[in-house]
Specification:
This protein has 426 residues and is α/β, with parallel strands linked by helices. It is built from nine helices and 15 strands. The chain has a five-stranded mixed β-sheet, with helices on both faces. Strands 1-2-14-13 form a four-stranded antiparallel β-sheet, with helices on one face. Strands 10-11-9-12 form a four-stranded parallel β-sheet, sandwiched between helices. About 9% of the residues have low confidence. Catalyzes the phosphorylation of D-fructose 6-phosphate to fructose 1,6-bisphosphate by ATP, the first committing step of glycolysis.
Amino acid sequence: MQESWNGYVNDDDRALLKVIKFASPTSAGADCIDPDCTWVEQWVHRAGPRKQIYFEPQYVKAGIVTCGGLCPGLNDVIRQIVLTLEKYGVKNIVGIQHGFRGFFENHLGEVLLNRHVVQNINLAGGSFLGVSRGGANISDIVDSIQARRLDMLFVLGGNGTHAGANLIHEECRKRKLKVSIVGVPKTIDNDILLMDKTFGFDTAVEAAQRAINSAYIEAHSAFHGIGLVKLMGRSSGFITMHASLSSGQVDICLIPEVPFTLDGPNGVLRHLEHLIETKGFALICVAEGAGQEHLQQSNATDASGNTVLSDIGVHLQQKMKSHFKEIGIHSDVKYIDPTYMVRAVRANASDAILCTVLGQNAVRHLSPSLAFCHTNPSISCCLSHWFLMETCRFMVPLLGSVASQPAYATRTMSTCRYQKSSSPQG
């Protein structure tokens, strides 16, 4: 007797976040809640296609918006959301231009999206819909959502974007609107707790290799050459660390997580002297957020509310030049800052696959029990399992930047359309 295959995910399926039981707080990587390292199971909802869907697809109008800075893979996520929505039978899909501004800037109209429009947008970097920072007036945005009669809004963005998405979620709840706010947080920094990897990270690391290789050639070819490369990474140094490790040429890697000193017997400058004496050249890679304690702090913030960082790259360049001049040793410092070049590129193969699954699962979670909820789950991947992580306000999400608030689905207090027909498998 042939067994039937079931490709649907049960709403009660759970994934275990941590699979290691640490015996002692002194074990490498141990994360314990008490001295005895008591084992605490952490279960999350499994992501994937549900047998029953919440909305009647033929009546749905879905919107997609990309906010904040660029990230490799944005177009791949947009494309897959559209393709998956169409597979479910949704025909009315629109793009909101240039982030949240598209909701209240009159000259920014909706972009009609379908399979033919998005078919090849993944072949280019950037965002097909355009991006912008700030400019979010929550009441105006929700007014626009109501006026456009949107049933779903897919929000792709980082810290500020998802803080805004969470406020939209709360405003929709207050107005008792039947609108799902679906979050796909983005960050090339790969700095999300409990996440294996965020989209755009692999591409950024790969793009950084060209800058590091150029700095190596400059430093190796010059007499007492010193190559200095500054890469993106406000509060984490994953791009800098991975790019340095994969290059095999970097002598000094400076990241925000590890404090360092410039002067003194154990300082960076003294180690540079040693490298010049022994190797004849040196290569340094630094994250933009590293060493901020050595610089004059600014209280300024950007449009997304992020603190404006002082330039550690220029500071290091000047310190190295003045130091070697003072001790009477010739040096030839070459500084390369490819900051935006590592993100304004097309997603590589690894990120393209990640974005494809993200886009699919962003649509698939809208089952009767998950379409509207009190908390705000985000699509994530851990230990090769895709899941929905419910995060509370001001907690760190599993996909997006640190301290963002992913708004995955708004709660409704009114009656809703309910479709019992099966959702697409696969």
